[in-house]
Design goal:
single chain; alpha+beta; Antithrombin, Chain I, domain 2; Alpha-1-antitrypsin, domain 1; 2 domains; 7-stranded antiparallel beta sheet; 6-stranded mixed beta sheet; 8 helices; 19 strands
Length: about 400
Amino acid sequence: MGISTATVRAVNGLTARWAGVSEGGTAFSGAGVWPLLAYLADGAGGVARTELAETLGLPAGQAAQSARELLAAMGTMRGLDTALGLWTQRTLELRKEWETGLPVDAHGVLTGDPVADHRALDAWTVKRTGGLIDRMPVMLTEGTQMVLASALALRTQWLSPFHEVELDTAYQPWAITARMGLRRSSTVLDRVGVADTPGGHVTELKVLGNNALDVHLLLGEEGMTPGQVLGAGVDILAGRRAVVPGPQLPYGNVGPGLQVEKVRSPRPQPPSLEVTTAAYTMNASHDLLKLDSLFGLTTARDTSRGHFPGISDFPLAIGSAKQNAMARFGALGFEAAAVTAFALSAGGVPELRYVTTRISAAFDRPFGFLALHRHTRLVLMAGWVTDPLPLPEYDEDDEW
């Protein structure tokens, strides 16, 4: 089952808007939130239904079907594991029309003991993310009637691995401590390109995985915000921003961190693309209710009354909405995970005879990334790198 272009653009649109309000180093998954909002919209009424539909970018009546198609398609992507879970109090009666739209094995039970229930939800989280995340980001109370959660975990190995080196950077916060850099050389010049955006030029580098899960690194001009840079990346995926690819770039400093030059060589060589970037591992936690308008939850979080008549006759409101996310970019590959939960409650000198072209791309100051499925262009994880990994201490006899 495929994903419609409208759904991909809707999910990626949420990712771009989330990036626009992000601050500091972070990782987040709009694809982890969107299907939950869709199922909630399907069961919502009144103003809450309208707000959720506006956030989704699709009519509420289409939301559940789009969520089912999205989850089904994600389930067929190599290297990606996804799951949706629903837990309810035994006394909470759900509307059959809503419940039957969920995966058949999704429904579990809340005992009413917050400690025991959290242990069970944490065990589900560990299992569904392969241990990348160990705790369900949910606030449980004795009054919690229902928990709706999603999990996704993605892993890919680079088609062309990097070599670990010390990162050479003049960016002062990073230069104070030796950082782990990654370097590789390629003859495929169109992996890099430059886009002209309203906020400034953005350099895009595609790092391809062996299972069609790729990571696009994005470096903007100094002063550009994470939202501007990551938003440009989403626009590039949607075809709203043109990219001038490596083979068509002129000589000189042609984009952020990007230089094209003629170099001499002792023998004939094809043009090359030399890439340097930073290794990183990050963990992030997000309270979605602090951004309630972004996620269409302003009315739905009002616990003085119910907002989901399509889910149950019992009055339900959003008591908590959170996401835990992680991402790791290394020499051999990339892995990331996100769990989202809603709780509803009351570089010799040889003779140089030949000339060739060399493109050098350096991601040596804060940059963004989009992890996506190559064929659908669905963004699964996004983030902003501000604190790369430190360079490990090696013995004198060790080699990098």
